[in-house]
């Protein structure tokens, strides 16, 4: 295994564990971490999950408001979002590819 493969495997494991900690069951966390690994390999794939975004707080999206209130996003679904802003690396480096 190359050092790049080891790094990718470590990132996958951290993501899976973080998703389980955030409430996903083990199988879903495994699958999402795998989807994100494939996303990371594709330089044209700009999809994100809400938990990577600085506007996602306490289960709500502060980027999209409905009647002045934050919305509940599809937090574990890879998607494109024009309101997305990557969380700071120090605070969120285990889940982000950037």
Please give a structural write-up.
The chain is of the alpha+beta class and 98 residues long. It is 40% helix and 12% strand. It contains three helices and three strands. It has a three-stranded antiparallel beta sheet, with no helix packed on it. The longest helix is centred in the first third of the chain and has 19 residues, at 3-21. It is globular and about 50 Å long. The model has no long low-confidence stretch (mean pLDDT 87).
Describe the strand arrangement of the main beta sheet, using strand numbers: 1-2-3
Mean of residue pLDDT values: 87
Poorly predicted sequence stretches spanning 5 or more consecutive residues:
none
The string of secondary-structure elements, in order, is HHEEEH
SS field, number of helical segments: 3
Count of strand segments: 3
Q: What portion of the residues fall into strands of 2 or more residues?
A: 5-15%
Radius of gyration: 14 Å
Largest sheet: 3 strands, antiparallel
* Global shape: globular
Alpha-carbon distance between the two ends: 22 Å
Structural class: alpha+beta
Helicity range of the residues?
Answer: 25-40%
